[in-house]
Design brief:
Layout (H helix, E strand, L loop, with lengths): L1 E5 L3 H12 L3 E6 L2 H5 L8 E4 L5 H7 L6 E4 L4 H14 L4 E6 L5 H6 L3 E4 H14 L7 E3 L4 E7 L18 E8 L2 E3 L12 E7 L3 H8 L6
Parallel strand pairs: 1-2, 1-4, 2-3, 4-5, 5-6
Antiparallel strand pairs: 7-8, 8-11, 9-10, 9-11
Length: 219
């Protein structure tokens, strides 16, 4: 896949390295030559100096063949302009813009752009760690509305079924790891001692799940 990354800060650099290591054709754009130099001489992708929203620079980076574009600079304005140019004028199929100010997210969504806000993700993750340490999410989806959680079946659940843990639209048992092998359970699957249960759950329902397991404060 042909990928263009605008902005070679910490995030852009890491994404560029990961994509290049996976064998993708990567072009990295940055106005600062020192930023591009951090990629090193062993970087297999293309380094392009200039503004990431400049048509000339984008053409030099190979925008006409690009299948994905990531705007990861330190400027929200530059990211959104570059993302819009990539999407609207060059019709790049996958365009993502990094966003520092989450208050702008709704505006950008109306423009049809996918944004990633480290501020929102970081705040939600801190909230999860501070308030639900017994059920530490492995990862979250969207802006943190849904979490993937892994727990070993507690004694009170052994002998019960997946149906007893399921709340439609809120809590779902996605998989069970039993004796080192994963399986996709049915509603009638009986939980055994030593089972590792993988659940997807609305973060707003974690307290409800804690109460079910007897993990809530004061239980």
């Amino acid at each position: 896949m042909k990928v263009i990354i605008m902005g070679c800060g910490r995030v852009g650099e890491q994404v560029a390295r990961l994509m290049a290591e996976e064998g993708h054709a990567v072009s990295v754009i940055d106005y600062n030559p020192a930023a591009l130099a951090r990629l090193g001489n062993d970087f297999k992708g293309l380094k392009v100096r200039g503004a990431g929203f400049s048509r000339k620079v984008l053409l030099e980076a190979g925008i006409e063949q690009a299948e994905a574009f990531a705007a990861t600079s330190s400027s929200d304005n530059a990211n959104i302009v570059a993302a819009r140019v990539a999407r609207v004028f060059f019709h790049v199929p996958k365009v993502v813009a990094r966003l520092y100010d989450p208050r702008r997210a709704e505006i950008y969504r109306r423009l049809g752009l996918v944004t990633i806000s480290s501020t929102i993700w970081g705040a939600r993750r801190l909230h999860e760690l501070l308030t639900h340490t017994d059920l530490d999410p492995l990862m979250t989806f969207g802006h943190g509305e849904v979490a993937l959680i892994e727990i070993e079946a507690p004694p009170q659940l052994v002998g019960r079924t997946v149906n007893d843990l399921t709340v439609p639209g809120e809590i779902n048992v996605t998989a069970i790891t039993r004796e080192g092998k994963a399986l996709l359970p049915t509603m009638g699957t009986t939980l055994r001692a030593g089972d590792v249960i993988h659940l997807t759950i609305l973060t707003s329902s974690i307290e409800r799940f804690e109460e079910l397991l007897g993990l809530s404060q004061g239980a």
